[in-house]
Amino acid sequence: MMVIMTEEHLPDAAAVAGLAQEAVPGVCAADVRPIAEGGDHASWWVGPGHVARCALDAGGSERLRREVALRELVAERTGVPVPASVAGGDWVRGRAFTLDVRLDGVSAELRPVPDAGEADLARLLVSLAQVPVADAEALGVPPEAPRNLPGLLRRASAAAESVAARGEFDATWLPRLRVPGAEAATAPATLVHNDLKGEHLLVAEDGRISGVLDWTDAVTGDAAEDVAGLAISVGAVAAVRIATAAGFGHGGCARALQLARCDTLTLLSDRLRGLDDSPLPLLRAQLRRAWEPTSLDGPEAP
Question: How far apart are CA 161 and CA 168, in angstroms?
């Protein structure tokens, strides 16, 4: 169904409650609280059982609508736990709105991922590789070429100097930036979540992965991007262990580590220069995780 609001502004809690109750009569919307605002959508807890999300622009609306169909494909083909959408429409004309079922568990930023969770993440990587690329692209999931490692390395090396000068990076770690075998790694394109950060992974009390959230950035392309996301969210050592269990070779794991290390350096540098508003404690934690020494690092790396 389509729900229309007349004012082009982010809805408040009362407006979100109204959207939810109109979309699904009888839904419990007595307690509506904001979760966070992402790059292209904002989210609210709606009662104990639902999550509402509102796109902020036309591009975000396209990604939000596409995500609903993609989650259905992922759930059908892989069994990966993803939120189900119970209603959707527009919260203002041309700006998408969805109401999803809330999954159990807490963010991987707040709860460690033990062996059982790592096994679930390995199955996730295997399952995504088994989804036909043509099926994902038929839903509008865009293809994306692998990122250029030499360019990333140049930017990350410059960022390392500025971040180290501010006392935010141990310059003795820098040899770990170039992971042997990373630049020669190649692999066929697969479906990629493309944002496997800790806040998008839900961990149940028993340590199992109970949900994989926010598929709006999904692409078909370089599967190493998802392993890089795991390095940032659960640590480089665990990410290599998970990827290896999923069938990644040395080159794919090395590429993933190099991507994660470049990204964490440049993101922290951008934040320190006022070019990004991500929370500093989160960026520092992500950098520490991605730069853990692993068996893939060269002998000269400390």
Answer: 10
